[in-house]
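Practice problem: TetR family transcriptional regulator
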Amino acid sequence: MTARPVDGEEFALVAMPTPPAMPARRRRPRNRREQILTVAACRFGDLGYHRVSMADIAAAVDIGASALYRHFRGKQDLLVAVVDDTLTELEGLVDDRADDLPAIVDALAHAALRRRHFGALWDRDLAYLPERDRHRLQSRMRALVSRVADLVAADAVGPAGEARLRAHALWAVLASPSRHRVDRDAARFAELLGQAAMAAVRAPLPTEPTLAPRQLPGAKPQLPVSRREAILTAAIRLFDRQGYPTVGLTDIGAAAGIAGPSIYNHFASKTEILSAALARGNEALWLALHHALTTADGVEDALEQTIDSYVTFAVNNPAMVSVLLSEVINLPAEQHDTYQRSQQAYVNEWVALLGRSQPHLPEPEVRLLVHAALGVTNDLVRVRLLQGRDRLPTEIAALARAVLGLGTLSQS
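Answer key — structure tokens:
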């Protein structure tokens, strides 16, 4: 309030307008970069790299896009930073614990829960990085696997030549939470993951193959004459190698040996090709499961046959495994939900079998172990360095059994 003259001699008190309040200055958190990396990892992991924009990430962190670009030059740079940051933590956890494999596994299990999106992100989105960055990151991961393999060789039963196989299985178990949303108390979750990973390290492996390898020595595989089949086969292979969003119909036509426009004689769109590929994979799994259930002699035998059927499918169709794991998110919403339900129903059959076989385990823990066993299978069939092992299908099945806590069940 202030006084001012009125009519020359009298004064009156007049209210002055209150000046507008100055907005409080927002201070940038010291951990802003870490916040961005955490949000980006979650968005990339949940939605896929190609479905996330820098604007989405900026909004989730509550900053402007220009502020985000002060930290990262672009989306590829951000993805590189997310992977770099995770690998740096994993490397530190391994290096800080000398040669104590159980302690390393326990630390890695807790890290896997803190960085739950990393496994799916690594598996699906690394292909979208520039070749130089991709190779550098892959080299770091190979070094991590080799470091753990050396420790496994000193800890595990069996020949030293099995160490790399077991090390990959260990990492697959730890990455498995990225493929599901099962939740437990963090300490118990990490304990179960660690136990499953160490089971893969220490389980005895068969010395003779009981499941056929992907291709017998001297085999002469033949290709179908159907053009539709050629298109589908080529598309699955390309989706696996490059990721669905970066593959065009022209690419598929060239790989199938036909002109790109000719694809429209068989499929209306690229989405229809993806849908057909996913339908084929899902139905193949359900047919194999049906056979296992209807020919089984009890719950344990049904579970054994189910494990063997899945391993056989995965060994013979590694590219299809990748598509089933990573590309459902690229379908339109209605189709996406249909395939998600089908995949979830398939997992539920495993959960029901293991739950009846191991009735002492709570259902969420059964489900966690099922995803870990599936993860071991899905990962090992796609590791190139392991493909020359003549007992690989049988070894994968044995590792899956160990992860499920089935011990040394007889193998048919």
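Discussion: The first strand starts at residue 2 and ends at 6. Students who identified this feature from the tokens alone can consider the problem solved.
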